[in-house]
Amino acid sequence: MYDRPPTSVLLPTTKWTDACAELAAQLEDSDELLIIHDSEDDPVTAQEDHLEGVRFIAAGEPEGCSGKANAIAAGMEAARHDRLVWTDDDFHHPPDWLTTLNIEYEDYGPVSEVPYFVGQDLLSVLLEPLYASAGSLPLYLGNQIWGGAVIFECGDLDEAAFLDELRRTVSDDGLLMEYLQVTTVGRTRIVPIGGTIHEAVERPVRWTQILRWHFPGAIAGTWLISLLVLTGAVLAPLPVAAVLTVLHFAVNEVLGVRRWTAVLAYPALFVFVPLVLYGLVSRTFVWSGRRYRWREKFDVTVGE
């Protein structure tokens, strides 16, 4: 049996979800699960007295950074162990999830999984194929970090410098990509997204601005390629629709996900390109109930 080092699992959430129980059940004697919430009034704290190995950390309201970045920073500062796992509360963690990540760390060093976003509203469903090709596939092929499933040790990065910058920006995993090299292990997690049209519009704005401030070359390339493909889609709709559909079924095969929504790749293009443009020019966006104005990479204003 694999005798893993003690691990601190960081889970930002304000409410108790299935993921909380799944992770609590995977803890070994020396592990800890840090449930990082905003305040003592959050619903998740109702579980505080009932779970062994689980600690509840009140991060407080963010000032000059996102709520997620604030939570991760508070969790890293409170963690008792050098080996850290970041994760999210919105996807299924199978019983061997934590042990598997630890074993893979021994083989590869820092490791990350890949998300596949599945829409819960009409707009998010429509955009699924382009989220797969423009979001998940580059993470998969480029060994890039998804903050929902990443394992590393504090010594793998300059922790003090990272935490200082994390408290002044929006994207936790966008910043981590600048500090840490990982191996993606070819494993995809299904992550439900959306629920309302408003959420579906705000999400690509946030993602576009993350690329704008952390990877300007990537957003410029995405915008240029999208415009070129859109032009082709207008001039030659049938051939382009056929090619896009086949390509997106192939993307799903690479990611190990079979979704009928690949057939929506052609119409999704006509929505995706305007949303990318909107994301580039928008001055603010909403994320988990807070409105952010992201003026520069380390210049963030938090509103209601």
Automatic annotation (TrEMBL):
Its main location: membrane. GO terms for molecular function: glycosyltransferase activity. It comes from the Archaea. Gene3D superfamilies: Spore Coat Polysaccharide Biosynthesis Protein SpsA, Chain A (3.90.550.10). InterPro entries: Ceramide_glucosylTrfase, Nucleotide-diphossugar_trans. One of its GO terms (cellular component) is membrane. The keyword ATP-binding does not apply. It holds the Pfam family Glyco_transf_21. The chain crosses the membrane at residues 222-251, 263-286. Keywords: Glycosyltransferase, Membrane, Transferase, Transmembrane, Transmembrane helix. It is found in: Membrane. It is a multi-pass membrane protein. Coiled coil: none annotated. Pathway: Sphingolipid metabolism; Lipid metabolism; sphingolipid metabolism. This is Glycosyl transferase family 21. It comes from Haladaptatus pallidirubidus.
